[in-house]
Structure formats: C-alpha cells, structure tokens
From TrEMBL:
<keyword id="KW-0238">DNA-binding</keyword>
<dbReference type="GO" id="GO:0003910">
    <property type="term" value="F:DNA ligase (ATP) activity"/>
</dbReference>
<keyword id="KW-0548">Nucleotidyltransferase</keyword>
<dbReference type="InterPro" id="IPR014145">
    <property type="entry name" value="LigD_pol_dom"/>
</dbReference>
<dbReference type="Pfam" id="PF04679">
    <property type="entry name" value="DNA_ligase_A_C"/>
</dbReference>
<feature type="region of interest" description="Disordered">
    <location>
        <begin position="319"/>
        <end position="352"/>
    </location>
</feature>
<keyword id="KW-0540">Nuclease</keyword>
<dbReference type="InterPro" id="IPR014143">
    <property type="entry name" value="NHEJ_ligase_prk"/>
</dbReference>
<keyword id="KW-0067">ATP-binding</keyword>
<dbReference type="GO" id="GO:0006281">
    <property type="term" value="P:DNA repair"/>
</dbReference>
<dbReference type="GO" id="GO:0003677">
    <property type="term" value="F:DNA binding"/>
</dbReference>
<dbReference type="GO" id="GO:0003887">
    <property type="term" value="F:DNA-directed DNA polymerase activity"/>
</dbReference>
<keyword id="KW-0378">Hydrolase</keyword>
<dbReference type="InterPro" id="IPR012309">
    <property type="entry name" value="DNA_ligase_ATP-dep_C"/>
</dbReference>
<keyword id="KW-0511">Multifunctional enzyme</keyword>
<dbReference type="InterPro" id="IPR012340">
    <property type="entry name" value="NA-bd_OB-fold"/>
</dbReference>
<protein>
    <recommendedName>
        <fullName>DNA ligase (ATP)</fullName>
        <ecNumber>6.5.1.1</ecNumber>
    </recommendedName>
</protein>
C-alpha cells in the first residue's frame, strides 16, 4: 500500500501521523522457519540487511508485517545516503520500523481498520532490538510537519484511522507530506567533461510517462569519488549507443544559471538503474532545478518510476471525509503524544560496537582511522571444526578495539602469524621493514648480525586490524612503550604450569600471589592467559627500569614459592623445576612479550586472555570460560576492569622501606 503525495499539511480529525522514514520499504514474511525480508520490487533483503533479517528470524511470530529499514544517526534521524552506503554494522545502526500488520496467525487483517491493526501490532513488537514500532501520533499535520522540519526529517505520513490496507494501491487514505522535494529517477546516461579526472561529471535522468522515458535533468552534485567509482561499475555493462529518452537531451546547452558550461560528452545507458534526488523546484518545461544525488534505489523497478506531482491537500482530504451521518473515527490516542523532537525519535544506541565485516562477501575493503584496509579470505576457518573464521576474528578485534588498544598503543609487537588457522603453519615475525604500508609506525632495532630492522608498532584500531589481517591471532606487545622503552608500564608474575601441573594449582598459586601482594600493600590485577596459566599485573607507571622491575618481581615470586614449595618453582632451567609450576618473573625484561588483555589465543575454543575480578580466581575457573563467543558480552557488562594497570603505579622504594620497618 502506497501513499499519495500532497502539497500541504492539514488539521482534519480522524487522521493519525507517523514519521516518514528515509529508507527502504520492506515487508517481513514470517512463517515458522520460512522467513523472508523483501523490498517493494520483491527483492530479497535477507543478506543485504542481515542484522534485520536475523532479528526477524528470531521474532517468533507467524505474520506478515510492513515497515521501513533505515539507518539512524546519533540524533535518531534516518538518512538515505547512510542506508545506501551500508555494508556492515560498522556503517551505522540499522532499524526496522514496523507500522502495519497484514496477517497474524493465519488471519487476514487487511480488512480491519488501521487502529485495530496497530493495536495488534503493538502487542507483538519486540521490546528490545532493531525491530521497533513506528510511533503513531494523534496530533495535527501542521504541528507534526513543523516538528519534522525542525528535526531535519524527510517528512510525515498521514493515515486515516479507519482505513483498511489495500496492497499495491496508491491510496488517498495514506498521504505523505515532504519537508523537501524529492523524486525517484531513472538513470539514462552520464556525461564526462573535457579534462575532468572524475569517473563522470553528471547523471542524465528521467521518468516514465507511459512507455517512454522523459528527460528531467542533469545531476552533478551529491556524490564523492568513491561513490562515482562504485556507480561506474554498475554503468559499464549497461552502456548503449542510443539515448533511451524520448528526446535526446542537449548536454552542452547553456542555462541562465550556467551560461558557459564545460564541454561534455554523453554516454547512454539502458534505463535499468534508479536513484533518488532532491531538488529546489521543477521548471515550467519539467526540468529539475538544482538537483542533488541522494542515493541509488535498488528496491525500485525503473518502469515504475513516474513523475510524482503533489495533489492538492484540500481536494484529497475532502474526498476522504466520511459521508453525511457517518461518525469520523479517530481511534484511541497513542500512549506517546508528546510532540517534542526528543520524544519522536529513537536515538542510536551507544552500546558495544557492532561488527565491521558483513557475513557474505569474501573480500571487503573498509576505511578505518582514515586508512583503507583490504580484508581477504574471510570465510577461512581459523579454528577448524569450530566454525570460527578469519571474519569472526577480525570482527572481534574491531569490536574489542576500544578496550585492547590502550594495552597495545605505542608498543612494538612480535607478530605470531597463523595465515591458515591454528592448525596450519605458523611463524613469528618481528621485522616489518619494507613490508608494511607507510602509515604503520615502525620502531628500529639492530640485530646481532649487524642488520637494521623494524618492529611494527600499534597506534590505533587500523594498525590492530592490519596485524590481525596478516593472521596474527594473538596480540603480543612489549611491556614498555617506544616513548620510554627501558621503563615497563607494568610488572608481571606469569604462572606457567608444567605438563604435570593442574589448573587448580594455578588458581592456588594466584591466590597466594594475591596474599603476598596484600601483605605488601601492592595492587595486583589477574587475567587468564587464554592458554594454560594466569598472569598477574602490577602497575608501575613506567617509573622503574626493567632491572628494577625484575628484581621486584623476583622478590614476589620467591615469597610465593616459599609458601607453596610442594608444586611451585622459580628455577629458570626447565629440568631443574622437576615438573613444578613455574612462577616466572623473567618476563620482566626488554622486548619480552605476553598476550595482551582481551587478546584471542590460537588455542582450541578460541579462548581469550580475560581480566578477572579476584573473587573469580577460585576453584571451578576454566580457561574456556572466556572465548570469542562470550568475551564481548562480558566486557560490555564489566567494563575494562584491567584499566588500573595503566595508572600511576606502585612506589617500590616505599614498599621495600615499609617491609624493612616491619
């Protein structure tokens, strides 16, 4: 069911109002496991808008629902350009605003009045997630349009409260009132100006009148270079020798607004592509003034694109009035009747990041921190037999970036690369000289053979993802930064079990470490290694050298070992440990690395090195408690509980002085 465009707002009773969302119309067909999300031209949106499709599949109702898919900005306003450029969840928050219910549990509802259909719809809309009710407002069109204009919306929809649903009909019971002039157009060609470096200079567009395509203007604004490149890929297979328009347009004709246009050559296209434009006004001869490209409309058939002329509101509303003696239906007042901008819109949620890469394309190019990254072989299983792919790994690191980057920033990395997953050949890579792009920061080092080489340094999420894209499943940063390379940020006690050790012994050793630290009045922060052991970090604030740090760690490790002599050791040589758990303090040395907090590990289960609360370090804790599947949910719930490790740090001299006094 389609709405008729009218030229002005009105204040008649018996009408309800909704926001006109600037998106793609979509109908959800839900029949148990058979679920489809389709456009107006019956094109599947299942893959393209996969988060909405997943939400519809999980809805659990047996129904046919009508709505609009949109992308919201931080003010809750939908923009068509953002939707048209949407490739993955990183491009914005998709929402599916549902506004009508056509079938429910096998019953046809199209003959019921709108108010009753809305009542039933409100009862089944999920309370959370991207499926949202498009609010119905019992107000006046004049007030509502004024609010929509103030908020920068496309317009409003007016619907008769007692109207039935008539599929395929452009009904006068549904009216649309736009804030700005918009028109869907068919692309019939493009121009290229002499001397231009752009892919094309302008679009030549038209609308159908009967069976013929009539030219209505040349569009030269609204697209950037990237958009033009993607559009040219669509144009090339459609190039033809003859213009598709009823009359060939003169692309070099001067106008009073541009009396000396640059010379242009026209290229003609099969009239199959549809886009949407905004414009200032239509001239008397049917040409748009100041048109601007808004985005491609892949949900519309070219043959259905006609000139949309606004009907006179007074005539349409008068025709829709009930006959004499009939009582106008206004329906129940919506629970939401405030007309302030804040109450009309759902702002985009500020929760944990969504994924960067979509689930279907094997190769994807994304811009991160201003740098273009090409991600390849995305369906390759990095954890074979567990269904965890390279795509999953990259999405995890993109989502966890705000939490993990502070522990990687300005730190040289040792890349542990698994280009074919955890069961394939792996290797360490320190040197990235001549191998990394120019925007990657590098830190020099000199080898024993007299060679000058460079470590890679993580600066932001782009460099994190570049490293992960090389197959570096785990992140192994230095304990110090390139700003103070001889002064570690933290001191580490690494609990490294032998083949004969149990994880219960690891837990007991961690608890004893906590007891020793408490007696010293030194804070310590535990995390799982993601493998077989645990790590305990002590903040130092980059105030002490590696030698001083290691001596302090040795003292703590010795105290722990003395309390647990039966199954712990601080012996460096493996054969001298006699199968005991190693309380390792030697990790506190220059260029030594450990898996960072929140890092994935190349271990079965796709485990994560997860920061813990001390009360979680107890019997029953397991390595596989924290994996790629649940880590983000935990981090969102708990926040970065490891953050104090990056803080001011302990005063070792004061600690030792207090110890002497005791």
């Amino acid at each position: 069911m389609l709405a008729t465009l009218v030229d002005a707002p009105f204040d008649d009773p018996g009408w309800r109002y909704e926001i006109k969302w600037d998106g793609y119309r979509a109908v959800a067909l839900l029949n148990k496991k058979n679920v489809e999300l389709v456009s107006r031209n019956n094109k599947s949106f299942n893959d393209k808008f996969y988060p909405i499709y997943d939400a519809v599949k999980a809805w659990g109702i047996h129904a046919v629902v009508d709505g609009e898919i949109a992308v919201l900005n931080d003010k809750g306003v939908s923009t068509f350009g953002a939707l048209q450029n949407w490739r993955s969840e990183a491009d914005g928050d998709l929402v599916y605003y549902v506004f009508d219910l056509l079938w429910l549990d096998g019953h046809d509802l199209t003959g019921l009045p709108l108010t009753r259909r809305r009542e039933l719809l409100e009862q089944v809309v999920p309370k959370e997630g991207p499926i949202r009710l498009s609010e119905n407002f019992d107000t006046s069109a004049t007030e509502f349009l004024a609010a929509a204009t103030k908020m920068g919306l496309e317009g409003i929809i007016a619907k008769k409260a007692d109207s039935t649903y008539t599929p395929g009909d452009r009904s006068r019971s549904w009216l649309k009132i736009k804030v700005n002039k918009r028109q869907e157009v068919v692309i019939g060609g493009f121009t290229v100006n002499d001397g231009t470096s752009k892919a094309f200079s302008a679009l030549l567009v038209g609308v159908y009148e009967g069976a013929r395509l009539h030219y209505i203007g040349k569009i030269g604004t609204g697209f950037n270079d990237k958009t033009q490149q993607s559009m040219m890929a669509l144009f090339k297979p459609l190039i033809v020798n003859k213009p598709p328009f009823k009359a060939e347009p003169d692309v070099n004709k001067p106008s009073r607004f541009r009396p000396h246009p640059p010379h242009a050559k026209a290229f003609w296209l099969k009239p199959e592509l549809v886009c949407e434009v905004s414009y200032a006004e239509m001239t008397s001869d049917g040409i748009m003034r100041h048109p601007s490209f808004e985005g491609m409309r892949e949900d519309k058939k070219a043959k259905d694109v006609t000139r949309e002329v606004a009907a006179h509101t007074e005539e349409v509303v008068a025709a829709a009035k009930p006959k004499r003696g009939a009582k106008p239906a206004s329906g129940k007042r919506s629970a939401t009747t405030e007309k302030t901008p804040a109450s009309l819109l759902h702002k985009s949620p500020g929760n944990m990041r969504k994924t960067l890469l979509n689930p279907s394309e094997e190769q994807q190019v994304r811009k991160v921190n201003g740098n273009e990254l090409t991600f390849t072989h995305l369906s390759k299983e990095y954890w074979p037999g567990e269904g965890v792919t390279k795509r999953d790994m990259l999405n995890y690191y993109y989502q966890v970036a705000p939490f993990i980057v502070p522990y990687l920033k300005d730190r040289p990395q040792s890349l542990n690369r698994f280009p074919n997953g955890i069961k394939g050949h792996s290797f360490y890579q320190k040197d990235v000289t001549g191998k990394a792009p120019d925007w990657i920061i590098q830190y020099p080092y000199h080898t024993g053979e007299g060679e000058d080489k460079n470590f890679m340094v993580v600066e932001d999420e782009a460099s994190l993802l570049y490293m992960a894209n090389l197959g570096a499943i785990e992140m192994n940063p230095w304990n110090s930064t390139i700003k103070k390379p001889e002064y570690p940020t933290w001191c580490i006690i690494d609990l490294d079990p032998s083949d004969k050790s149990t994880f219960e012994q690891v837990i007991e050793t961690a608890q004893m470490t906590k007891q020793v630290l408490d007696e010293l009045k030194v804070p310590g922060y535990p995390k799982t290694s993601g493998s077989t052991g645990m790590h305990i970090y002590i903040p130092l604030g980059a105030k002490y050298t590696y030698d001083e740090c290691q001596l302090f760690a040795r003292f703590i490790a010795s105290q722990v070992q003395q309390q647990l002599p039966g199954f712990t050791s601080i012996e460096r040589m493996v054969d001298k440990r006699k199968g005991k758990l190693y309380v390792d303090f030697l990790q506190n040395r220059n260029q030594a690395t450990l898996a960072a907090p929140y890092s994935l590990r190349p271990k079965p289960g796709a485990t994560v090195s997860m920061p813990l609360h001390w009360d979680e370090v107890k019997k029953g804790l397991k390595m596989k408690d924290f994996t790629i599947h649940n880590a983000l949910e935990r981090i969102q719930s708990e926040g970065d509980i490891f953050k104090p490790v990056l803080g001011k740090g302990v005063d070792i001299a004061k600690v030792l002085k207090n110890l002497e006094q005791e």
